[in-house]
Fold this protein.
Amino acid sequence: MVLRFKKYLLYPLAWCFVASTVIASMEAITYFIILDGLVDLTLPDFLYHYSVSIAVMGCTLAITWGCFLVFAVWLGSMRAGLAIFMLLYTVLMASYLMHVLNIVFAYTDKYAPYWGLLTRYFLSFAVISAVFFSLILGKITRNRNKVLTLRPFTIIALQFFALICILWLRNTSLPQLSGGIFITLYLALALLSILLLWFLFASPRRLQIFLIVVFLLCIAPLLLFKNNPAAEDAVSTEGAPAAAQAKHVVLITVDTLRRDALGCYNAEYKGQTPQIDGLAEDSTVFTKAFSAAPWTCPSVSSILTGLRPQVHQMITGKGALTEKAPTLAEAMQQGGYHTSAIGFNGLLQERSKLNRGFKEYHWYPMQKYDIEHFGVGLTHELIYMLPRLIPDASGMTDHAIEWVQENRERDFFLWLHYFDPHTPYKPPVAHQPKQGGDGREMEFHETRAARMGSTARSVEDRDWIRALYQGEVRFIDAELGRFLEALRSLNLYDSALIVFTSDHGEEFWDHDLFEHGQSLYNELVNVPFFIKSPHSSGQDHIEDNVSTQAIMPTILELCHISPEYPEGLMSSLSPMLSTAAPHTATEPIYIGSSLFHDRLEGVVFDSMKYIHGTLSGHEWLFNLEADPEERNSLIFQDAENLERGRQLLEQRKEEDARFRDQLGIDSDEEEPLDPESIRSLEALGYL
């Protein structure tokens, strides 16, 4: 019985532990290579990440071995040694190939959309080669009792662990050490340690003494670790807002919210959005506000950086924000505000790098279990498969209210981003359309086909989909009302600076297409936008053309924060918030970075909008006052404004190039996304 326990359980579990150590070491090395992240990890954090990888992979291997034991060994009469070899070979080979993919994608995003396909190919190769080599090994060792010995494999695992510890030490304490000297020293020490370990492993008593010494040496430094005084000083010396400018700043962005879906902009929906309308009554309302782009990534990036999409380069959906672009959160943090973001959109998670400057970044969908790890390899893939928190607007509001209650004594900047009313349209029962008793579905999911106009062909179906969307808007209104009421109950509302807008609108076949990202018509880029100043006296309407790109300089000016900017960025809107201040002539508003079909770029000037297709060469010119629905293009009737639109776009290209030079941003500088981001894009219908 004891022999069977050792043979089928104890020894295989020991193998699984050693294999998980090797896998954790590979993940740490890959993390070091592609992220250069070991510099940022303290030794306790580094060891914690390492132990998490060992624990996750060890448990996974142990459970998998249980399945092998039942189906391969017990039912299939396979030798236990061959079964454990087949399992470990498969996992180690798959892990190695995954790291190859991670390293490749760290330097090029050329093959990023094929992550899933390449992963399946590599896993298939690992399984097939494991079966092949297991058959060969079984043939060679059919008359032997043992297939493998644990001693050399354990020594290899220890060598891996030593390597990553030395890599960490070099990058934290000895960065001046050249690569050649480092490799020579490591190889010499590795050779000596292999000889020593082989000698120690030859005797159980020697090995026991060695392990006790190693254990004591490992735990001794941990007992001496204290909080980093430099970090404490960094926190304590952070600037604080002066008393006169201390305020609570809340930026609210609602994904996919049409301007005409709100009662404060459209009398047809008067009374359907009372909470947002109430906020508008206390605010300066901009009736001609335009987003920087008709979809999320470039639009939100422009809001948070004050830069046009062609400058910050978040325009393809396959990259992350460059480190060279300044952000609103960074400036607010430097100004002494506690910065936090709470939101839901798979495109805007931490890997987008839009979290720069936020001390807290609570972004959904997030893992239900917060497990810190290296973020690469099989451990990451396994953790990614765990349940994820995907709240609706109600859950988001609960989180935001709880956060404000905990931080009400601070001067804070909070960015709150609601994902509703983005597809799928699935409003709660209380906000569903009333005419739903004729068998129609109470939700709508399809995006790709509908975006091309190939679904919901009947007028009734299209009206029903719009009604579902409007139900989502009512839901958002109710939840935003709960958040605003919480601010009032905490006596924060009156003194708060609140900015409300949307990243883009939504098209409901207004121009024969559906959803967003494919055009620059007003239903997508003319967005709701209003600013409630502290202790505002009432509503004011601004009829000038403005851009949500001006949110960053406006907030910073109202908070008396003056970071360094490239010259010539969009002006702050703060003078417009004072009724006594005369409104200056507005700047041209540039829009672009469409995602689907033709690559469109446009400019709004005076009452005109000019659009140019960079791929097709097609042009459109609309008079927004005489033709607000943009039905009649004037390219053959208004040569003067057509030429002016062309000149403004050319001028914009020159300005963008100059701004990129000032910031040191290349024209195609967009950090590649990881495979997880690619999956999010695919799930949202962007790829």
Notes: DSSP finds 20 helices and 18 strands in the chain. Residues 2-35 form the longest helix (34 residues). The chain has two domains: 2-176, 249-577+585-684.
